[in-house]
Amino acid sequence: MSKLTKNRKSVADKIEAGKAYTLAEASALVKEITTTKFEASVDIDVRLGVDPRKANQMVRGVVSLPNGTGKVTRVLCLCTPDQEAAAQEAGADYVGLDEYIEKIKGGWTDVDVIITMPSCMGKVGALGRVLGPRGLMPNPKSGTVTMDVAKAVKEVKQGKIDFKVDKSGIIHTSIGKVTFTPEQIYQNAKEFIATVIKLKPAAAKGTYVKSIFLSSTMSMGIKVDPKSVE
């Protein structure tokens, strides 16, 4: 058994084994147990009582975090010329169409989110092999294929994220930074969990939210009592 470092021991002493904390308590505690020298992200893991292999039990959605994500999101807007000015004004980092289609075909994917219009999907769809594996393919369900690209760009820049349950029935995502106040972390986490609950599939039986854990980059997980966020 490896020996606990001084930092790890001090962190372990702050978390009571087997205890499920309220979301408010966990939001404050996650800051206390973070020992990284860089600005760590605050992550949330929600285990659901669904079978993602069945289409009618897939959970996928978008949420606008009240306090943003705390990170800079690079946005590419693939749109028609008449929408370029609006997309740029909304904060898109890259705006255009054909020139960026060619760049992506050449292997360029130096962005976090791609937003486009339905009329452009004929060209964007051909990039599936490049964008799909990287999770960059625009999708109407996540709001990244829309007629109002300016609004979509603005929402992403302000903290809108999309998420989906993985094959193990877990949703994992970042909801902020440890430099946030406990109240900001709590507000973001509560909004995220509330959105997940609203998306409960009609076909899901039994307990829907099985467990919730809050953690930061490289930290221990803090068990959250699901009843504290209902």
What key attributes describe this structure?
21% strand; three-stranded parallel β-sheet; globular; 31% helix; alpha/beta; 9 strands; four-stranded antiparallel β-sheet; single chain; 230 residues
Quick synopsis:
It is built from 8 helices and 9 strands. It has 230 residues and is of the alpha/beta class.
Molecular structure report:
- The protein has 230 residues and is an alpha/beta fold.
- Helix content is 31%, strand content 21%.
- It contains eight helices and nine strands.
- It has helices spanning 6-14, 23-32, 81-90, 98-105, 121-124, 128-131, 149-158, 182-198, and strands spanning 41-48, 60-64, 75-78, 94-96, 113-116, 160-164, 170-177, 209-216, 222-224.
- The protein has a four-stranded antiparallel beta sheet. Strands 4-3-5 form a three-stranded parallel beta sheet, with helices on both faces.
- Helix 2 (23-32) crosses helix 8 (182-198) and helix 3 packs parallel to helix 7.
- The protein is globular and about 55 Å long.
- It starts with 5 loop residues before the first helix and ends in a 6-residue tail after the last strand.
- The model has no long low-confidence stretch (mean pLDDT 91).
Strand content: 15-25%
Q: Please tell me what the overall shape is.
A: globular
What structural class is derived from the secondary structure elements? alpha/beta
**Rg measurement, Å:** 20 Å
Q: Give the SSE order as H and E letters.
A: HHEEEHEHEHHHEEHEE
Quote the distance from N terminus to C terminus: 39 Å
Spans of 5+ residues with little confidence (pLDDT < 50)? none
- Total beta-strand segments: 9
Strand order of the largest sheet: 7-1-8-9
Query: Overall mean pLDDT score?
Result: 91
Portion of residues within helices:
25-40%
How can the largest sheet be summarized? 4 strands, antiparallel
Count of individual helical segments: 8
